[in-house]
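Handout, section 4.2: multi-component inputs.
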Amino acid sequence: MIEFKNVTKRYAKNQALDDLNLTIPTGDFFVLVGPSGSGKTTTLKMLNRLIEPTGGDIYFNDKRIIDYDIKQLRQQMGYVLQNIALFPNLNIQENIAIQAESLGWPRKERIERARALLKQVDLDPDKYATRMPSELSGGEQQRVGIIRALAIKPKVVLMDEPFSALDPISRKQLQDLVLQLHQELNMTFVFVTHDMHEALRLGQHIAVMRLGHIQQIGTGEAIMQHPANDFVRGFFENEHTPRPATIQDLVIKGYGQTTTAPATLKSTATVSELAAALQTAATVVVATDQGARQLTTADVIDYLATKEAD
Amino acid sequence: MAQIMHILQTQGGDILHAIGQHIGLSLISLLIAALIAIPLAIVLMHHERWAKVMLQITSVLQTIPSLALLGILIPIVGIGTVPSIIALVIYAVMPIFQNTYSGLTTIDPNLEEAATAFGLSRRMKLFRIELPLALPMIISGIRIATVMIIGTATLAALIGAGGLGTYILLGIETNNNALLIIGAVLSAALALIFGAGIDWLGKLSFKKAGIVLLTLVVLIGGFAGYRKLANPQTQITIAGKMGSEPEILINMYKDLIEHDHPNMQVATKANFGGTSFLFKALKSGSIDIYPEFTGTVLESLIKGDKLASHNPAKTYQVAKNGLKSQYQMAYLKPMSYQNGYDLAVTKQFAKKYNLKTVSDLVAVEGKIHAGFDPDFYQLKDGYPGLRKAYGLNFASAKTMEPSIRYKAIANGKVNLVDGYTTDPEIREYHLVVLKDNKHFFPPYQGAPLMTEKLLTAHPELRTTLNKLAGKVSTTDMQQMNYKVTVKHEKAATVARDYLRSHGLLD
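Output:
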């Protein structure tokens, strides 16, 4: 169990955290969510003491974390960074096993563990184990980033906006992956995101933060149904009513054929307007920044189908 | 080109030896610099202020001209290899330190954060993450340092540490472009080869690069140790100035001493440096004997009122007494030849106007177009004095570089030049030296110079070296210089042949 008791963090000019109280049950998937400057990352990094509080205490299994040997504390916590940060000079299995290496595991065991973890996230060990990080795609790299945090079977895994730099498809796959790993591994996951959608999808408990204060803690359902204040309500409404998709969004994704025919619609028109136009004609020509494009019904259906996957 | 090939053929062994010295000097300096700079950068990587101070200091050291640095070091650590290595290390520390420091401090902060968050020890973080990531920068620092060291190491020849600089200096001194090119091209080639080798090293993994470096260290160390054991300490060191003539003389000294005293071992250091440098080396005990000219002693070594005498015997006496009273040095008897200024014309020109002495020039002064060394043109002992003494008034007199004036007379651009009496060019270009019938030029006679201390400890040296007193005529010397400089024979061989043919050696 992790407890924050009256934790504050004051920098020279501003107050990053103000009297924070928080309990994370063992084995929970706990998500800290909020806009930038809310103090969510500060809260996370206090757990492995990358940032030290200026007031209050943090307890890990009923012992203050400052009373742990810092190295031992960190070796009980896996850490996944936003920008992945695989060591470019080490190959994939060396990256995965770096914490195991610092704990003095024998080489053979380290390699076995790395290979088993690669298999667990559907990366073929024979293919990936000895590659260098630069040879992997962003999604593959963050898979490795996640299993690197799991290598020494830590009690807690800290994840700092791990998917914010990924494309929507990889993001969804990796969200599924961490959910699955959490179920299998019986570890406490603490996850930071600014994306309410992601928080709702992953978190057993969610803490909504703003300007160094916790606005509300609870299950996703409870927060949705009974938002504690206007800020929380507003944060959710933004999630519910996204900006309507425009034709430009389609074109950017690469739909449509270049044409010289005269345009009948502007690219700022919504996808719904395009659908309406397609009810009366097989193709519609749209004027875009990239020149005129000819779009079909199939394009719209394709676009909507992949958009749902986001 | 043919000349270069000839030198390479006849002096190949010596050149290889110089390359070896050059590489040894450079690598040892590089190694010491790296051993200082890299750990220092590691220690200071988390102390930005001190690192900045250190960068300032190393940059300032870098701006000291290398010659000045060598000059500063000589009184402290003497001459030879040690001050050269110190100077080279001082230059090489800055690029290595700077690159290592910026390599270590510009690592992506996210990677640093990851390593910290994983609870890696400081040691593991350094060796597993930080140093490997900084390695390309460190290697490029070492590369810069290497190229710089190999270039600067040519100056080591100035203070008797040998290396390829010997050939460059010798080439400048004797105006032998072939030697100059050999020295310069070889040191440039070395810089290129080592630069490429270091690049190759940079492409290896951290571990492999370490193994290669370690092997290199062991090899150099072993080689140096072996050399130390194989060459027991010599008792007497004889050095000579730049050029063929001193080299011939010191080889004569060596042969005579070793022949007479089998228990003595003589080391020769040819092309050791200029007058003041050799004199300092003698005073400090770095060398034991070197041949010096009587005229030079008066002109630049002893202080006080010097009677400008044109009598060789008197000049020698003044020089000898001055050296004894002012520096406690012993100056043995001079050889016969004089290496003073002279005036020379071509054989045809001499024949046409029946020129034998300088006085004969007066009759044809309207036809004389002279080419003079700039020093000769200005010195009181040179052209201005000569003009007055003989009442000469030439049609024209130009100054030109020493070597160019010989070419100018050979090409007919001028018809009178100054020179030194033993210059091999006199023979090479078939010139005739005009007799200084009024004894205007001060006498320059060569004689062995040593400390009185040495002579007291080994009085037998006097008898041995005095065997050369009054020997070696100007023509002999000219001929020997010609053999060494133009024909590229070895100075040691030329010296021994002379001693044998004159019954001084069996």
